[in-house]
Amino acid sequence: MATYLRALGWLLCTLGVAATIYCTDAVLADAAYYHAALAMEKYPGNVLYTTEFKMAEPRHMLLVAGAASAAPLGVILGSICLGISRVLRSLGQPR
Questions:
Q1: Burial level of 95, CB count in 10 A (0-12/13-18/19+)?
Q2: 70 with 20: CB under 8 angstroms?
Q3: Per-residue pLDDT tens digits for 67-85
Q4: For residue 46, which phi and psi values (nearest 5 degrees)?
Q5: What is the pTM of this model?
Q6: Residues 6 or more apart whose Cβ sits within 8 Å of residue 24
Q7: Closest CA to 83 of 5, 1, 4
Q8: Nearest 5°: phi and psi at 68?
Q9: What pLDDT, on the 0 to 100 scale, is given for residue 95?
């Protein structure tokens, strides 16, 4: 069980950082959102551009949330698994 938790801890840490990198890259490359925001800025009262912006906004905000929370969450959960693994290994050793 200790080996499983240790592997899971490292996997969670790695996947958390990888997810943050992916989400950050996706936020920066979100052309639909940036195009809609530019159109909304240019024509603020236009219903078509407002609707386009409102359709692109949720995906962009979820990517921002993923970029901000994936690494800390992965590192925290991975650290918990690594800590439990260490405790289980120390309990299994004869003194």
A1: exposed
A2: yes
A3: 999 999 999 999 999 999 9
A4: -75, 125
A5: 0.81
A6: 67
A7: 5
A8: -80, -25
A9: 57
- Tokens 């801890």 belong to 9
Q: Taking 90 as the threshold, does the pLDDT of residue 2 lie above it?
A: no
Hey, where are the domains in the chain?
2-92
- Tokens 């690494």 map to which residue? 71
Tokens of 35: 């195009």
Distance CA 60, CA 34 (A): 9
Q: Is 81 helix (H, G, I), strand (E, B) or coil?
A: helix
Q: Which two tokens stand for residue 20?
A: 């943050």
Work out the number of other CB atoms within 10 angstroms of the CB of residue 16: 20
